[in-house]
Amino acid sequence: QVQLVESGGGLVQPGGSLRLSCEASGTPFDIAGMGWYRQIPGKQREMVAQITGSGEISYANFVKGRFTISRDGTHKTIYLQMNSLKPEDTATYYCNLIGRIVGGRDFGTWGQGTQVTVSS
Q1: What's the average model confidence in pLDDT over 13-23?
Q2: At 93, which helix (H) or strand (E)?
Q3: How far apart are CA 101 and CA 30, in angstroms?
Q4: For a Cys staple, 48 with which of 14, 36, 42, 82, CB 3.0–4.6 Å?
């Protein structure tokens, strides 16, 4: 079993910055990709940024130039540096991992979510 633990959300003023972290742990696994998604109540969850196991990165258009996804040397912790935050970035942010258990099955899993509120 693989778990994701997110941290770093909070309240920030417009124009401010936050850094989210997501650490994966559990049964030995290989990572196909990890990413950040967000969801506003009443709306569908949407992709914010993704990084593949080989390091390819993609961003949603609405965060390009403001958010940066990165990972540590183990590739099991990813970060989302969010700059120039806007009120419309207010959402619950979720970490996602797609991978394969070593010697086992493919899987996908989500973190518990961390709230980001951008407000003056």
Answers
A1: 98
A2: strand 91-101
A3: 6
A4: 36
